[in-house]
Write a structure and sequence with these properties.
The chain is mostly helical. It has 25 helices and no strands. It has helices at 4-43, 58-67, 74-90, 95-112, 117-131, 137-149, 153-166, 173-183, 187-200, 204-216, 220-233, 237-253, 257-270, 275-287, 291-304, 308-320, 324-343, 349-359, 362-375, 379-391, 395-406, 408-411, 417-429, 433-446, 454-465. Helix 5 runs antiparallel to helix 6 and helix 14 (275-287) runs parallel beside helix 16. The radius of gyration is 31 Å and the shape is globular. The termini are far apart.
């Protein structure tokens, strides 16, 4: 016999079962309607499937790249420039569009080795500043990028520091300052900027920038690992190709020809406009003895990106092959491109001084490089000036600059076969045979293929110096 409580609970349990059954019915109806609705969407005439979102335009892709300091594809850059030019014609007071246009001109000029873009970039960026004189960080940072592209590192530092003062947490300013400090030989400042950058941001662009600092500090393994991670994380082919080109250059600097060639070839496959990688292929192929392919790679690179440095490299390759007339053609191209750079406000005194020291007038090289040293005393300038002084017969003074380029305290720690070769040859001239032998051996150990002309000279000089004397026999070193 039910007790009174059970009789009271029975209606409650019944209502609960009804609610549960009701909810199942409702769910079934909802599911059925959903299926039916899906069928109706598929079969009813006049109905259209929802369209997938349109892919971003090339201009918007390039804009995202340019404004975040990431390499952009040349066709995308052209699209962006066209879009911004139309925009500023209709809205001449649009400060941001002027800043984006100026920065895009900088990147295109850099990628094409065409300094004619730089005056246009400066005009656009200064127009942006006139339209918005205060807190216009994009235009100020764009002027820092322009100064770096022109190799005007003091101006790049000034504009970069001004941009940083406006927005200390704007991460894209830090890479500009890293480049400026490295160009001035201020490696500790560059490293400090990298530390602050990595606190604000991570990702492929930051990894690639870190690799440059690591390389300049002699940490080549860390640099290679950072570039590998950057390339793996890159979103666009042009970005990945740029990081692979830098990885190829690192491999070349350590004398790993096959690895360098693989990186350069993959970079060109991903982005056929990656002319630095094509020149890199020429460098690696020449060292591998594949001369015809090397010459073709250099010619293709120079046809689309007539960079003075590529012309110098190709000219020296022709010289090494006993083809002086072909070399002179490249040296004439170098002079022509340097004149164009000057017209565009760019500084190519370094490469012109390097050329004059070995293939022209060493005294003229000394004059040019002394002025460059006073303006921006970077490690590469120290090496070039030391070598020019040596070629002009001023060996004692030359050694001071060669030591500065190779001494870790001043150079930052970069390991360069060319710098070691220069120092060794200067020491040999000064009869400091022990140091000369060490530095020439170091050059060949770092990269025995560092130059088609001077790699041979390094080996010949090392052979002429012979083996070091037996232990206990003093060597007249002069150190």
């Amino acid at each position: 016999m039910e007790n009174q409580q059970e009789r009271l609970d029975r209606p409650v349990r019944r209502r609960s079962r009804l609610r549960f059954r009701g909810s199942r019915v409702v769910l079934a109806c909802v599911a059925g309607c959903a299926v039916l609705g899906g069928v109706l969407v598929l079969v009813l005439p006049g109905e259209r499937r929802p369209e997938p979102p349109a892919p971003p335009s090339p201009g918007s892709v390039a804009m995202a790249a340019v404004t975040s300091g990431v390499p952009a594809a040349l066709p995308d850059l052209a699209e962006l420039i066209g879009e911004r030019e139309k925009r500023v014609r209709k809205h001449p007071d649009d400060a941001r569009s002027w800043a984006v246009l100026g920065t895009a001109y900088v990147e295109r000029g850099r990628r094409l080795a065409d300094p004619a873009y730089y005056p246009r970039a400066e005009k656009a960026l200064r127009t942006s500043l006139r339209a918005r004189p205060k807190r216009n960080t994009e235009a100020v940072a764009g002027l820092a990028a322009l100064a770096n592209a022109r190799r005007d590192f003091p101006a790049a530092r000034r504009w970069g520091e001004a941009a940083l003062e406006l927005e200390p947490r704007r991460w894209t300013t830090y890479p500009l300052l890293i480049d400026a400090y490295a160009g001035l030989g201020e490696h500790e400042s560059a490293e400090r900027m990298l530390d602050r950058l990595t606190e604000l941001r991570s990702g492929p662009a930051v990894l690639a920038r870190a690799a440059g600092v690591y390389r300049d500090r002699g940490r080549r393994e860390d640099a290679a690992a950072s570039l590998a991670d950057a390339a793996a994380g890159a979103r666009a082919p042009a970005e990945r190709a740029a990081y692979l080109e830098r990885a190829g250059q690192l491999a070349w600097e350590r004398g790993d020809l096959q690895d360098a060639l693989r990186h350069f070839q993959e970079a060109v496959r991903l982005d056929p406009d990656q002319r630095a990688a094509q020149a890199g292929q020429g460098r690696a192929l020449a060292a591998l003895g594949r001369t015809t392919e090397a010459l073709n790679a250099y010619r293709v690179a120079l046809a689309k990106q007539p960079c003075p440095r590529y012309a110098l490299e190709l000219g020296e390759l022709y010289e090494s092959l006993g083809m002086p007339e072909a070399a002179r053609v490249q040296y004439d191209l170098l002079r022509e491109r340097v004149r164009g750079a000057v017209a565009g406000g760019a500084d190519e005194e370094l490469v012109l001084g390097q050329f004059e020291a070995d293939h022209g007038d060493p005294r003229a090289a000394v004059r040019r490089l002394r002025a460059e040293w006073r303006r921006q005393p970077g490690t590469e300038v120290a090496d070039a000036l030391g070598w020019a002084l040596h070629r002009a017969g001023k060996h004692e003074e030359a050694l001071r600059f060669a030591v500065r380029a190779t001494d870790e305290e001043h150079s930052g720690g970069v390991r360069s076969a060319l710098y070691a070769y220069h120092r060794g040859m200067i020491e040999r001239e000064l009869e400091r045979y022990g140091s000369a032998r060490r530095h020439l051996a170091e050059a060949l150990r770092i990269n025995p293929h560092f130059s088609p002309l001077y790699g041979r000279a390094a080996r010949a000089a090392t052979d002429a110096l012979g083996e070091p004397p037996d232990v206990g026999v003093p060597e007249m070193d002069g150190d």
